[in-house]
Design a protein that fits this description.
The protein is an alpha+beta fold. It has 5 helices and 7 strands; from the N terminus they run E-E-H-H-H-E-E-E-H-E-E-H.
Length: 147
């Protein structure tokens, strides 16, 4: 039985849901799960969602993008929000890229390195309004130093 484990006691059966056995581990799961899903992105610069999107977008077509703005925001550490414009499928489109930093100095340096620059933007071929900026492309421009 997938939904419940059964224990036979005399003439009656006691059903315990499968998650009942996870109770001793709840503290570790409760503290680690949000970090795994995205809260830990402040430490590594990105969330797992962003890394998954980048992996998926590596084979997409690319376009030359122009950074419109790069602002530093104080949210659970420091986040740099980059707004860019790119030309795909005969029209201009807009997108956003964000990256987290622990220190303000690092966030300011990253934002300054991107302001007014041209970057490579990957876009989904059948939906060109969906775009991604890859870390490896930012590394090539010199804006992102990978360790």
């Amino acid at each position: 039985m997938l939904a419940a484990a059964s224990y036979r006691r005399g003439d009656w059966t006691v059903h315990h849901p499968w998650w009942h056995f996870l109770a001793p581990f709840w503290g570790a799961i409760h503290n680690f799960l949000p970090w795994l899903i995205g809260g830990g992105g402040a430490a590594g610069g990105q969330t797992l969602w962003q890394k998954w999107r980048q992996r998926r977008a590596a084979a997409w077509p690319s376009a030359d993008g122009e950074v419109q703005s790069a602002t530093v925001q104080n949210r659970h550490g420091y986040a740099v929000v980059v707004q860019y414009r790119y030309y795909a499928r005969s029209e201009y489109r807009y997108g956003k890229y964000s990256r987290r930093f622990r220190r303000r100095k690092d966030a300011d340096a990253f934002a300054e390195a991107l302001r007014g620059r041209h970057i490579q933007v990957r876009y989904q071929e059948n939906k060109p309004e969906v775009s991604v900026v890859l870390d490896q492309d930012l590394h090539i421009t010199g804006a992102l130093q990978l360790g």
